[in-house]
């Protein structure tokens, strides 16, 4: 079982936020890593990756973005957007005294990382974008919008696993029953009445439903170029991804020839980052960083 210290901190608008702090456990101390999850996920997504990073001598912080996991729900759904999220990350780094970090951003977490690059590139030493970029496939966005914020409560862990299988089997066709069960334990929480609910505010879906994460945003393209041309950046793409399809990945590699690239076979959106191909790429990428 991984060991971490819970972190509580306040956003600039006084929302109570949460993160996990995995201390470096091996080798000389190196630049810390900040892990940011996807739209409907939480810090537990990194409970297998984070200890591996910590064993490389890198303190690893996995956040619960506002509205997810143990972070408070925002009474104003308009705040569920990458600009506000990036501000929360800046507050966290200030509290922890972290001047620079390596960022790992899955899906929405990558959008937050690119937004941060546009505002405070000095905070980013390097970045790993997990199945995300400035141009996103409409097909993938529509699929995510079709389920985000729409699940009610469920009565058993088997139902929770079945729900996740229904909406994600296209991305993880080889997942075992055990893997779906582990995912359910990360994604759901049991309420006082025994019912299971997803660990996020349903209003987080506003960002997609109102078009605040448009796939052809000029600002997003500029932010990506600024990041990938001025900081070491690795793109990890699921070979079956419907969000970052081959066409989008090709554009990214042409827009920033310095971009490192790894493709994870037999996985869609988004890799867990513990797959052998992903983990090998991450290890090689981090080995070149201080």
TrEMBL record:
Domain of life: Bacteria
One Pfam family cited in the UniProt record for this chain: Abhydrolase_1
Domain AB hydrolase-1, residue spans: 32-276
PANTHER family: HYDROLASE ALPHA/BETA FOLD FAMILY, PEROXISOMAL MEMBRANE PROTEIN LPX1
Protein name: Pimeloyl-ACP methyl ester carboxylesterase
Organism: Massilia yuzhufengensis
Record lineage: Bacteria, Pseudomonadati, Pseudomonadota, Betaproteobacteria, Burkholderiales
């Amino acid at each position: 079982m991984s060991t971490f210290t819970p972190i509580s901190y306040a956003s600039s608008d006084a929302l109570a936020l949460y993160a996990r702090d995995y201390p470096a456990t091996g080798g000389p101390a190196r630049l810390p890593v900040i892990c940011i999850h996807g739209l409907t996920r939480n810090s537990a997504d990194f409970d297998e990756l984070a200890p591996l990073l910590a064993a490389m001598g890198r303190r690893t912080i996995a956040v619960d973005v506002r509205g997810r996991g143990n972070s408070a729900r925002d009474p104003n759904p308009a705040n569920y957007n990458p600009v506000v999220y990036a501000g929360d990350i800046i507050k966290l780094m200030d509290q922890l005294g972290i001047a620079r970090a390596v960022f790992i951003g899955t899906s929405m977490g990558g959008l937050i990382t690119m937004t941060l690059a546009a505002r405070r590139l000095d905070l980013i030493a390097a970045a790993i974008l997990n199945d995300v970029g400035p141009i996103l496939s409409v097909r993938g966005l529509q699929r995510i919008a079709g389920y985000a914020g729409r699940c009610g409560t469920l009565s058993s862990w088997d139902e929770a696993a079945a729900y996740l299988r229904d909406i994600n089997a296209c991305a993880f066709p080889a997942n075992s029953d055990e893997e779906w069960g582990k995912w359910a334990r990360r994604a759901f929480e049991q309420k006082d009445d025994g019912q299971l609910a997803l660990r996020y505010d349903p209003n987080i879906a506003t960002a997609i439903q109102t078009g605040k994460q448009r796939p052809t945003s000029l600002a997003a393209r500029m932010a990506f170029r600024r990041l990938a041309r001025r900081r070491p950046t690795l793109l990890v793409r699921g070979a079956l991804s419907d969000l970052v399809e081959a066409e989008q990945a090709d554009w990214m590699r042409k827009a920033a020839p310095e971009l490192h690239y790894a493709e994870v076979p037999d996985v869609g959106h988004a890799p867990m980052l513990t797959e052998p191909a992903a983990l090998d790429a991450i290890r090689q990428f981090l080995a070149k960083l201080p």
